[in-house]
Design a protein that fits this description.
By secondary structure, the protein is mainly α. Helices cover 80% and strands 0% of the residues. The chain contains 6 helices and no strands. Helix 2 crosses helix 3 and helix 3 crosses helix 5. The radius of gyration is 17 Å and the shape is globular. The mean pLDDT is 80.
């Protein structure tokens, strides 16, 4: 088979399988709605932070922010009802920074560790500010 066709078909199959695995379970239920909200806020905040700093691609910044949003949501999901409603700003920033740094180390090999932490901290702070008390 022609090399170009192989590359096209393999890429298409991988994309289709990732989309089906990622999007099918994303039907929001009551609890899933909060994680999707936090992932979206984190991705948007990280993309904005990366654009302001002029570092990283939009996709990479979105992935780091989404990971930060998922981590912040996971940590707050383990807390009592009162503490879920009244989140801790320092904890949200720290968890977001740690998750974004870890994701940046995996996706880019740790090229800009401090920038990854800043993007995650901004994502954690944005999630805190937009969802605290809700």
């Amino acid at each position: 088979m022609n090399l170009i066709w192989k590359r096209t078909l393999i890429t298409s199959f991988i994309t289709a399988s990732l989309a089906s695995v990622t999007l099918v379970p994303a039907k929001p239920a009551a609890a899933d709605d909060q994680i999707l909200r936090d992932v979206g806020i984190g991705a948007a905040a990280s993309v904005t932070s990366g654009a302001v700093r002029g570092r990283g691609s939009v996709l990479n910044n979105a992935v780091k922010g989404a990971a930060a949003g998922a981590a912040v949501n996971a940590v707050n999901g383990t807390r009592s009802r009162y503490h879920r409603k009244h989140r801790n700003l320092g904890q949200d920033i720290g968890v977001g920074a740690a998750a974004s740094t870890a994701t940046g180390a995996v996706t880019r090999g740790g090229k800009d560790t401090l920038g990854d932490a800043v993007d995650g901290a901004v994502a954690g702070a944005a999630i805190h500010l937009l969802t605290n008390g809700k």
